[in-house]
Structure formats: C-alpha cells, structure tokens
UniProtKB/TrEMBL annotation:
Its cofactor is Fe(2+). GO terms for molecular function: dioxygenase activity. Residues 5-282 form the TauD/TfdA-like domain. InterPro entries: AlphaKG_dependent_hydroxylases, TauD-like_sf, TauD/TfdA-like. It comes from Anabaena lutea FACHB-196. Coiled coil: none annotated. This is TauD/TfdA family dioxygenase.
Length: 291
C-alpha cells in the first residue's frame, strides 16, 4: 500500500492517513520502520481497529513486551493480556516524561491505542527530547552534565508486592539489582528504594543529546521522592525554565476512536492533559523495536 502521510504538528511526528478505506494490514512495514526511525512518533488514523488488531499490529514491529512491574501507576490488564494495559489511573494532568525513567530497564518503544476518546480534553502530549535539550539555557545544560537525579521511594510490604507483582523478597532483590536500584529491607518488610539516573542522555545513534527523564511529573505529583544525586534540592527556578520549555514545544494529540500511536521512548517524551470523562479509555504496550 502506498503510504499517505502528513505531519502530526509543525514540529513533530508523522500521521499515517488511511485513504480509500484500506486495511491497516496493507501498510508497508519497511516504510513504517523508516518513518519511525526518522521521526520518532507516528500516528495511525482512520483505520478499522480494535484492541485485538492493535495487539497484533504492534506485534509486527516489536519484541520483549513488558508487564509494567515496578511501574509508578496502577494499570488495569485488558482482555487478560498483561502486556496490554489501561493508562487511566487518575484524571489529572501528567507532565512530559520518558516512560519508566526511574529505573535502568526501560521500554525502548511505546504503543498507545484509543479505545474510547474523552468527550473533551484528555489529549496525549508529545515532545521531541532533542528539541527540548536544544532549548535549555547554557547554565542548565552545564548543571545536567554534572548532576544526576536521585529517586527515593518508601513502600510498605503490601505496596511493593502490588507494584512489583511479587510477594517474594528474593525476587524483588533480583529486580532491583537488574535495575541498578539500591534496596533497603526492614524487619517488617517495608522497603526504601534509591535510583540514580541522568537528566540528559545520548541518542541511540550517538549524534544528539536528548532531554528525557521523569523529572517533570515527579516534581508535579510527588516532589518528595526526587533530589539531585548530592541530595541538594531541585530549585524552583529550574523547574520554571523546564515547564516553560515544555509548554512551548508540546504537541497535543486529540484522540479519535481507533487511533494508534507509536513512540520512540529513547527520544520522545509524552504526557497527558487533564480530563473529566470517566469513559476515556487509552491502552498502552511497553516493548522494544523488533527491527
């Protein structure tokens, strides 16, 4: 099938447009891979899709699907598949972030599916981390060269068992070890986790610097978990700069039923605008490229 495309916005991504009522299975796989590698975010719109088609279509391009063990939010399993999850833990805004950047092992690729859009609001937001880095002040770039983020989380026994999907302390220890996370276990089996990560990373090709992390939503939703690696506080002035850049560069994706979104989680940050419609249903899959 010949692909018809248009920009998602003037600054980011490509939209794969269905023309002549074609099937999504007719899309040329190699053309999609090439567009993904160039743009980092692709929106498939106008195709006949459902949750099962979404799962099979994402399987064509992906491998190593994750079940979100250790994830920050509560996610509901869809259709009995623990790699197909709902994102609606709550309805407030979530600022731009890279998925699961509070641990070492991140999904390199993300897929989103719109089972039911909100009647209004609830847009998913995207931003290119390369563009974000370029907008940083020189002093902030220098700061991020020398300081990392330090995530510290305290959890009771029932909390970490739910989050890490295990009641086995030894299994938890192995998970933390593989994620370069320092784990302290107390007599009552409550725990403290500590993880250090950079604010800026090198792109996979090594040619660019990319601002991608979980700094903005952590400071928005739970600022007590986050400091710099020297235990200094993150200044309000710095957050003002970052939030201003985010708003300048953010693209809102207003969902349509059946939309599929494909994201490079090593380059493209995403987030969400607030909404009130409880019928909003967006699904996610976490994985790695299969190419």
């Amino acid at each position: 099938m010949n692909i018809t495309t248009q920009p998602v916005s003037e600054r980011i991504g490509q939209q794969i447009v269905n023309v002549d009522n074609k099937s999504i299975w007719e899309i040329d796989r190699e053309a999609i891979i090439s567009l993904y590698q160039e743009y980092g975010v692709l929106l498939f719109r106008g195709f006949a899709t459902d949750a099962d088609i979404f799962r099979e279509f994402s399987n064509l391009f992906s491998t190593d699907f994750l079940n979100y063990a250790g994830g920050a939010f509560n996610r509901r399993v869809i259709n009995g598949d623990n790699t197909l999850l709902s994102v609606n833990d709550f309805q407030t805004e979530i600022k731009l972030h890279g998925e699961m950047y509070y641990q070492k092992n991140i999904p390199l690729m993300l897929w989103f599916f719109c089972a039911n859009p909100a009647s209004q609001d609830g847009e998913t937001t995207v931003c290119d981390g390369r563009q974000f880095f370029a907008e940083l002040s020189n002093s902030t770039k220098e700061l991020f060269r020398h300081k990392k983020l330090k995530f510290t989380a305290k959890m009771q026994k029932d909390e970490w068992q739910k989050k890490y999907k295990t009641d086995d302390v030894n299994e938890l220890e192995e998970m933390c070890k593989s994620n370069n996370t320092h784990l302290t276990i107390y007599e009552d089996q409550s725990i403290v986790l500590e993880y250090l990560c950079p604010v800026v990373i090198s792109s996979r090709c090594g040619k660019y610097q990319v601002f991608i992390n979980s700094l903005l939503p952590a400071m928005q939703l739970n600022p007590d978990v986050l400091k710099f690696d020297d235990d200094s506080k993150i200044p309000n002035e710095l957050m003002d700069e970052l939030n201003a850049i985010a708003e300048r560069l953010t693209t809102n994706i207003s969902w349509q039923k059946g939309d599929i979104l494909m994201i490079d989680n090593t380059r493209i940050m995403h987030g969400r605008r607030a909404f009130t419609d409880k019928n909003r249903e967006i699904y996610i899959r976490l994985c790695s490229p299969g190419f």
